[in-house]
Write a structure and sequence with these properties.
Elements lengths: L4 H8 L12 E5 L4 H14 L3 E5 L7 H8 L7 E5 L13 E5 L6 E2 L9 E5 L8 H4 L4 E4 L11 H16 L1
Parallel strand pairs: 1-2, 1-6, 2-3, 4-6, 4-7, 5-7
Length: about 170
């Protein structure tokens, strides 16, 4: 029998995870698509992140589309745009920064112990995370893709990584 998600989660309390570990921060490097930005706000809200940070300029002509795609999440989580490229000016020093990226030094996310206190970052839809940003990350993980299209949409990659982190720490 179908049950509304709010009713199901009311009794299971998945948010109790945050009684023992800090909420993650989610970042995205120079996203181009308002739909992806909105989806990133939504998944950040879904996981209970403390904030969603977009590195790059705010798309003033399409911010309405970002808000529409984020739906109710746009009011549930702090989200903002910044042109700051020094991640340690944005992310507290005690958080480990984990890049979700296909890179030569990346490890399989399912074989990597993800830190409790974490900030996750995803990259641009076409070019990934810029080298100047990637070099500031503490850990780089990739998501193995068994199908013929070997890349994920940024919000899908964030979803996989965030819920793998949740699974490891619940």
């Amino acid at each position: 029998m179908y049950i509304k998600s709010n009713d199901l989660f009311q009794s299971s309390h998945p948010e109790s995870l945050y009684d023992s570990i800090p909420r993650p921060i989610v970042l995205a490097d120079n996203l181009l698509t308002p739909d992806n930005m909105g989806a990133m706000i939504r998944i950040s809200d879904n996981i209970g992140a403390s904030e969603m940070v977009f590195l790059g300029t705010e798309p003033t002509n399409s911010i309405g589309r970002v808000r529409k795609c984020a739906a109710s999440s746009k009011d549930n989580i702090k989200w903002y745009f910044t042109e700051e490229n020094d991640l340690r000016k944005i992310i507290p020093a005690d958080k480990k920064i984990v890049a979700i990226e296909t890179a030569t030094n990346a490890t399989n996310i399912y074989e990597t112990e993800l830190p409790d206190n974490v900030a996750f970052i995803v990259g641009n839809e076409s070019h990934g995370i810029r080298e100047e940003i990637l070099s500031q990350c503490d850990i780089v993980v990739y998501i193995p893709i068994p199908g013929p299209t070997r890349s994920l949409n940024v919000s899908h990659a964030a979803s996989v990584a965030l819920f793998e982190w949740y699974r490891q720490h619940k």
